[in-house]
User: Fold these one by one.
Assistant:
Number 1:
Amino acid sequence: MDCLCEIVQALIALAALVLIVVLAVAHITAGMVNLTRHEKEKYFLTATGEKELFPSLHDPHSRDLSVVIPAYNEEFRMPVMLDEAMEYLENRPKHQSSFTYEVIVVDDGSKDKTTEVALRYTKRYGADKVRVLTLVKNRGKGGAVRMGTLSSRGKVILMADADGATKFSDIEKVEAGLNDLSPKPENMAIACGSRAHLEKDSVAQRSVFRTFLMYGFHFLVWFFCVRGIKDTQCGFKLFTREAARKTFSSLHVERWAFDVELLYIAQCFKIPIAEVAVNWTEIEGSKLVPFWSWLQMGRDLVFIRLRYITGAWKLQSPHKID
C-alpha cells in the first residue's frame, strides 16, 4: 500500500513538473504581435505599373466590401477562384447599383508567379478594384490575411481562400448571417462560413487516422479556446470593419491555427459570431501536410490558451502602425 502511494505521489509530482515546464516553454517562446511592414509592402502597383500607398484599416471605409485572398504558390489554382469572384462582383451592381468593392490578393512570399498572375487582374479591372500586396517573406496564412486586412477599405471584409473551395456567391449567406447579428451600436460582428453540415460525408471518405486527427483537433479547439463554433477553419469569414480592427490588432498566430486565436479574441471581446453553412468542395493542391500540420496546429492551440493565461500575450487596443 505504501509503495502504491509513493508511485501515485511520484506521478503527481511528475505531472506537476511537466505542467510547469510546458507553461515555462509557452511563456518564453511567445512571440509578440507583428504589425510591422517592409518598405516594399506599403505599396501596390497600378495598372500602368506606378506605385501607390496602401490605405489603413484605421481610415474610414470607402468601399462596401473588401475581399482579402491569401495566396502562397497559387499561380495555377487562383485564376479559377478569381474568375468566379470577379464575375460575381462585377455583376452585383446590376442588382445593387451603389455596390462598390475591392479585391486584395496577398502573395505570401511565393516562389512561383502568383504576383504576376494576380497583376493580370489589376491590368484587366484596374487597381481600384484589384490590388496585389506582395510580402517580402513568407509569414503564413494568418500573417497574410492580417496584412491584407490592414490594407483594406471595405465596410465589411471577407477572407476567402485562393483555391476557390467555397462557392463565392455564398457571400450572400454570410452577409445575411452578419446582418442577423444586429452589430450596432459598436458595429462588431463576424460571420463564419461552415462545413460542419458536410462532416458526416467527409468522415465516410477519410481514413480512420485522419478522422481521429480531425476529432482530436475539434476537441482541443473546444477545450482550450473556442466554444460554440463547430468549424473554425473554413477559410470564408466576413468581418465588420470594426470587428476586424479589434481582432487583428491582437492576433499573434500567423500560421494554420490563426483562425482559432482570431475567434478566441472575438469571444474575449464578446463580439457576436454567426456560423453559416456554405457550399464547399475539396480542391487538390492543399498546402496542409496531414500529420505534421495537424500536430503543429494542436501545439499552437495549447500554447494559445497558456500564453494568455500566463500573461505572455495580452489583448491589444487597436492602434495605427506605419
Note: The chain has ten helices and nine strands.
Number 2:
Amino acid sequence: MIAVDDGMEPLDPAHVAEVLSNPPFISIPGVSNVRDLGSYPIATSNVITKPGYAYRAAEVSNITEEGAEKMTALRITTIFDLRSDPEMKKYSTPIPTIEGVEIIRAQVFKNEDYSPESISKKFELYASATTEAFMKLYSQILDHGGNAFGIILRHVRDRPNSPFLFHCTAGKDRTGVMAAILLKLAGVDDHFVCHDYSLTRIGREPDREKVLQRLSREPIFAANMDAALRMLTSRYGTMKAFLDLLEQKYGGVEGYVKNYCGLTDDDLATIRTNLVSSRSRM
C-alpha cells in the first residue's frame, strides 16, 4: 500500500498502530519514524536490500533506556546525525549518550545556514509545500550535503557488518534524501523509493501534535497552521519529482555521489555489494 493522502488531516489511530507494528517500521522507544531499509527488491533475481543493516529515523534525543536496549538488540553500532548545532539548540534536542553506540556528526547544513534569514526563507518554501518548493529545498540539501552523505556512504563501503542509523529532526527531508541515495545505489526501483518516502506520513503521525506545537512558535506558522501541516507532507509524487531532479540536474545518483561525495566507481561497486543480500525475508 502507498501512503497517499493530502497530509492535512489526522490519520485513523488504529490504522497508524497497525502499520507501525509491521515492517518496515521498527519500534525503538523514544524514537519515532524508524524504518529498516532492508528487504526492498532489486532487479536482479532473488536479491533484496540487506535487512537489519541501514535504518532511518527522526531525532534520537529522547530515546529511553528501553530504546537503547532495542538498539543493542538490533546491533546498531553507529548513528549519523544530520542536524546542525543551532537546530539542536533551537529545539532543545541534544545528542544523547547511548552505551555501545557511536554518534557521528554529519551536518548537512553549516551553522551559518541557520541564520534567521535563512530559516525564514526555508520556512516560506515549506509553507507553500508545492512540488517546486520541495525541489528547491531538496536541491539545497544535495548541494550542501555531499560531505555528510559521503561520511555515511564510506561507512557502508568499509563496514558492511556494522548496522547503522541515520536521522535529522523529523526523519523526512535530509533523511529522505539520504535514504533515496542508498536505495538507488542498491538498485531499487523508483516506485519503492517513493513508497519508502511516503511512509513518513504514518511514521510521524504519533508526534503530530508535538511537531505542530513546535512549529506554532515560528512566526510564519503561528497564524497559519495549514502551512505547518503542508510542511509535514511526504507525498509519493514529491519523491518522484526528486528522483527526476537527481537524474536531470546531478547526473543520477552515481553522478551525484562521485561529484559531490568524492567517491569512485570502485567505491560504488563495493557500496552496492554491501547494501544487498540474497537472503529474502519477504
Note: Residues 135 and 245 are 8 Å apart (CA to CA).
